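seq/struct pair 1
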Amino acid sequence: MAEKILIVDDDVDTLRLVGLMLQRQGYQIVAATNGQQGISKAVEEQPDLVLLDVMMPDMDGYEVTRRLRQNLATANLPILMFTAKTQLDDKVAGFEVGADDYLTKPTHPTELQAHVKALLARAGSREKRKETETQQANLIGILSARGGLGVSTLAINLAAGLFSRTQAEVGLAELVPGQGTLGLDLGLTNQKALVKFLSGAPSDITREQVRKALVPHISGVKLLLASDRPSDIHLVSQVVQYEAILDQLASLMRYAVLDLGSGLLPFAQKLLPRCNEVVIVLEGVPNTILHTRELIKELAKLGIKKEAVTVALNNRIRSDTQLPASVVQDKLEHPIAVTLTPAPELLTQATRMQTAAILCQPDGVTAKQILKLVDHLIQNENKEA
């Protein structure tokens, strides 16, 4: 298979010229016209080498390199900086943020080819690197004591927030067949992959099959969605298949958000102890608080430590009957990490735009609340490390 090179440059003429030169040498070319797009494509495409311009308007090559090096999925990608700058200090700055090599524009095709070959030989092929990958996802399970509390809505927004914060590979698996809502909300209907996996043999659930089943979304998150056919609910008892799915997701992602639905379904009881973090969603209503307190006790019986349980208070509607966070926390006997204020208009807008709410209003109150939860989970991850 031809080695893949990602070229990131805001100059379309340079993209075309350099891409043509490398294509003639037998390389597969992927192009990005700005820094943010370059980071996303590096995560998605996993190229063998990144050819990166320094001078770009939105995000310069130094910052792109810094973010690629901070991302586990792209930390080891060879990076060849390509720029019109000739000052020694500029080259030093490139090496300091993690560039592997440096070329000055304009360059002769023979010189470009020599540098590319040397870097690829040093790093090895992409397939060889994948054989030695040991990446295991940070698993985040989301559930509630009863249905209708906004678990799926929080799951997609949390996943989108994780991608926004880290630019890492983030997956979201909606795991209750027959009760899928995200596919309908995001315009991704007729999702059959989860049902197919659960209906087949565990040995058929391979890394490559799960990779192919993941649906990319504009939020940057890759999705494994549940069906909306009610009769599929019987598949929740296919525990061995669920474990096989989780094994493959964990090897493909930096973060895997698991929408576990409500209650403690058979597969959830098996998957929850494997989660690094468990997020419980509740609302400020007395009966729901009681149910949630019992749920936390049940999680403890599964061996899940109290500090691994994060509670999100989701006030879905504007109502004086809902208790304030301080009262909910006292009655629950567990800390509340974040309180989500009612935003029905925003959620309606998100459904209409088929995306996550935090992307509709990235500077809004809801986005800040979701990102507070994201930061809390990232801090917990760093403590564990």
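seq/struct pair 2
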Amino acid sequence: MSLFSGGLAWGYFYAMSVSFPEPSASSDTGALFLVYLDYFRLTVAAKVSGLSDAEVRASRLPSGWSAIELLKHLIFMERRWLVWGFLGEDVEQPWGDQSEGRWHVTDGESPAELVQALHTGGNRTRTIVEGAELSALATVGGRFATHAECPTLASILFHVLQEYARHVGHLDALRELIDGRVGE
């Protein structure tokens, strides 16, 4: 069962009331990836929760990105690596989070819609991971043109996990600049 079934408000409560997953005696690496990815998605949702439209769209950083742009990037990043990459499925606009070399959102995209898309992508990732061996190679097609380019599912999950961890840290710093709130 996904941790996201209750929506944004529940996700915020959950992320704020559950500690960061600690190492355990579990040897189920696939399940561990999923626990950590679920936790990071909930934390991302919590970081954008409660911000006004102006706050979520404004940048306070020299690089110029905003919280909503980073949120959209995470959605597309996960889809690029797991659906387009590992499964080799056609993905409409795999780089749709970018325009002219920058992260991009339109005025019509809302944080609530993007958080829902993040959760939907997380559910798809869960289905993929639960249905494959971590040693399985990505499919040729989609993101990877040759067998030599195809990473294992475990390698892809490590990459996706580090993207989430790094960007949750970015959102933590951004949120502190906006309203002083820190922590996961």
